[in-house]
Amino acid sequence: MALTAAVLLLGASVAHAANITISDNNTGSNGSAEDNGSGNSGWYKGGAAYLATSGATQAKSEYQEVEPGMQIGAAWDLAAFVTPGSGRLGVVSAYNLGAGYGNTTIGDIMVSLNPSSLGGYADPGTPYPHYVANSAYGYNFAVKFNFTNSTYTVLQINANTLMENGEYNTNQYGGYNYNAASQPWRVANAYSGNYDAAHGYNLGTAIYTGSLYYSNTASVAAMSALTGYTVTNEYKYYAEIGTSWLNSFLPPTNPSVLYKLTMECGNDNMLGTQTSGFNQVPDASATAALLGLGFLGLAGFAKFKGRKIG
User: Fold this and answer.
1) Residue 50, in any domain of the structure
2) Which domain holds residue 186?
3) CA–CA separation, 186 vs 49, rounded Å?
4) pLDDT tens digits, residue range 91-114?
5) What is the pLDDT of residues 109-157, one digit of tens each?
6) What is the DSSP letter of 72?
7) 91 C-beta neighbours (distance < 10 Å), count
């Protein structure tokens, strides 16, 4: 495809992009931003940049936001779930999705087809890691990233699937903190002790593996266009998956899908809700190619053929 045509199509794609992130509706100490008593104003609950561009008195955003009492700063920030086109889901982040940060790694995208039925948050317990059955939560799927192979794998999960809650993490005050609302951070990658098949647990069933498109050099222009925010240059990490695998599980009318993502320490917890645009037309590779030619650079992406398992 000619470069000119690709750039024109990129404009059309971004024009139809949607930011589906939903706020956790926490309120900072001054009603719009939290300084945690340390003078770091402008962070938590949207931050100064969002307030300045939106004119809002109380931010309704995940951009420049982390969870209450946790480490602040862009390095911990998951900014947005976006749908850059039909059948595609993207994650915009200043947290390093591929390599992790501060001895933590990114978790699974948890997926619920019935958000209103999700359970509460199971007590984390000690020591870390702490395992709990998915019956405490009620998610239907988990999407696991494989940045080494540039793929993602979709697991179908049930009440007996073994979930892993995040770690207790030393916070900026020198004590220990735990964000219960961020749990769980992933489906366990392996059994541990009595948390095994003999005791009724499972690790989910892989139903689909697809191409993961990832850049750690995304441009400010591209990420601002996708999110609708005026982002800073720290927000350069972008991962995109296809969602056509969802089609056979969705109801014929009024579908509603909730996505959840956090990192190992639960420092930031991001939610998004999608109600339309599930059909994969065109394929996810279109966005990757267009963004590559238009803004991101082809070196940031790798392509593997999607394949169904089983």
Assistant:
1) no
2) 3-24+62-308
3) 31
4) 999 999 999 998 899 999 999 998
5) 999 998 887 876 665 555 556 788 999 899 999 999 999 999 999 999 9
6) P
7) 25
